[in-house]
Amino acid sequence: MVIFVVVIVLLILWGLMGYNSLVRKKNSVEGAWAQIDVQLKRRFDLIPNLVETVKGYAKHEKEVFEEVTRARNMVSQAKSSQERIDAENQLGGVLGRLIAVAESYPELKANQNFLQLQQELASTENGIERVRRAYNDKVMSYRAAIRQFPTMILASIFNFKEEPYFEAKAEERENVRVKF
Question: What rounded mean pLDDT belongs to the chain?
């Protein structure tokens, strides 16, 4: 009888420790996502200023400006983490095209407002890359925990679901091409 009670107590303790570990990992993923969100919000706020600055010089680049606006709207309308990741990835690709267009105008490249915005955007993109890597590390740890035995049993019982990685799409890995 004593052995049975000890086994039950050990199972309960294991369950509590395993559950708490999963909660910590899930909270860690959510905290990392919040850091990404801060950086993405900064980029989101910089975009209108950058677009307006470039518009003054590149009036005939209407298509790029429309793409930036469309991509920015997709970000604000995203509901799930995966939709947000996809929209942000698309916005990043369009911003690369916008910068490539802007750099085709010598007088714009010398404009202080543009240079400052470009530096802020580059700093923000570096920040996004840094927090994206931290987020993906936390997602990897969390996913491993909910897939490993025996915590996978607890994850299944308490409905812990996988979180998506923040990955660049194939088209974002290609060089930006600008045609006039």
Answer: 85
Given phi > 0 = left and psi -120 to 50 = alpha, else beta, which region is 3? Answer: alpha
The predicted-structure confidence for 33-70, as pLDDT tens digits, reads as follows 999 989 988 888 888 888 887 777 776 677 788 888 88
DSSP characters over the chain: -HHHHHHHHHHHHHHHHHHHHHHHHHHHHHHHHHHHHHHHHHHHHHHHHHHHHHHHH-TT-HHHHHHHHHHHHHHHH--SHHHHHHHHHHHHHHHHHHHHHHTT-HHHHT-HHHHHHHHHHHHHHHHHHHHHHHHHHHHHHHHHHHHSTTHHHHHHHTT--PPPP----GGGGSPP----
**For the chain, which residues make up each domain, given as ranges?**
23-173
Q: Is the pTM of this model over 0.90?
A: no
